[in-house]
Amino acid sequence: MITKEELAGRLAEIIKRAESRNFHIGQGEVRQFFPEEDLSEEQIKLVYDYLLAKKVVVEGYLKEASGENGAGEEPGLSEADRRYVEEYKEMLAAVEPERPGERARLFRELAGGERPARDRLSELLLPEVLQAARGFLVEEILLSDLVQEGSLCLLTALEGLQGKTEMEPDAAEKWVMQEIRQGMQALAEQQKDVKSRDRRMVGRVQELKDNVEVLKDEMGRKVYLDELADFMNITEEEAEAILKLAGEEVPREE
Questions:
Q1: Torsion over CA of 154, 141, 45 and 58, rounded to 10 degrees?
Q2: Rounded distance between C-alpha atoms, residue 133 and residue 142, angstroms
Q3: pLDDT of residue 39
């Protein structure tokens, strides 16, 4: 049975390896870090989800629809998002319409290393970027941030197709869209994790402030840092760090 410390160490190693590959890693590579563990599909998905929260793309992994992101139900757009969609659509209206057979031809030219093909494909795939972004929209993130991330992933993926003459146009487009969706998913999961930690910290700050008042009432005097830490069963360093966030100060006993 893997210990908590061993798991943390292996996850850190996975992230380090992914960093050297533009924060991408294969599912098979992740499993190789747990050769002695008989992880169930649910357990390995938890590992993938943790990596997504660290903005690491697990190649080929997209979370199942849950009503929160992915192909789940889209939340209502904010006023800022609605304005962004209108501006984005105005920009798309200025793009030259796609001609019959043009997309397949461009993917073949791109595989041969022709730069104009990449630029034109990036224009033609912009509507798909917007559509994909709306599928990953959560309250913790702006639609514009998802579109920006998707656009960067689009350009990176198109660069990666150069020289891959063996890949058929349909397969190439499918791979590009997968890269876009995975990048957006990683961003959405990261922001959800950040917001969750922020909410927990706010709750922790309020809890600590309340406990300071409780101890003051019980003791009838000022409270020292070691007393507060003991009362909350945390270290003095943790208590001091939280107090700083709260803008309060509890002295150390002299």
A1: 20
A2: 10
A3: 76
Length of the chain: 254
The angle that helices 169-219 and 225-232 make with each other, rounded to 10 degrees, is 120
Residue 56 — φ and ψ, nearest 5°?
A: -100, 125
DSSP H helices in the chain: 4-19, 27-32, 41-53, 79-93, 102-111, 115-124, 126-135, 143-161, 169-219, 225-232, 236-246
**Cα–Cα distance measured from residue 173 to residue 108, given in angstroms and rounded to the nearest whole number:** 11
Find how far residue 132's CA is from the centre of its chain: 15
Q: How many CB atoms lie within 10 A of CB 19?
A: 13
Asked whether residue 2 carries a pLDDT value surpassing 80, the answer given is no
Helix (H, G, I), strand (E, B) or coil at 201: helix
Coil vs helix vs strand at 38: coil
HSE of 115 in the Cβ direction (CA atoms, 13 Å)? 0
Contact at 8 Å (CB) between 144 and 170? no
Predicted local confidence at residue 192, as pLDDT: 77
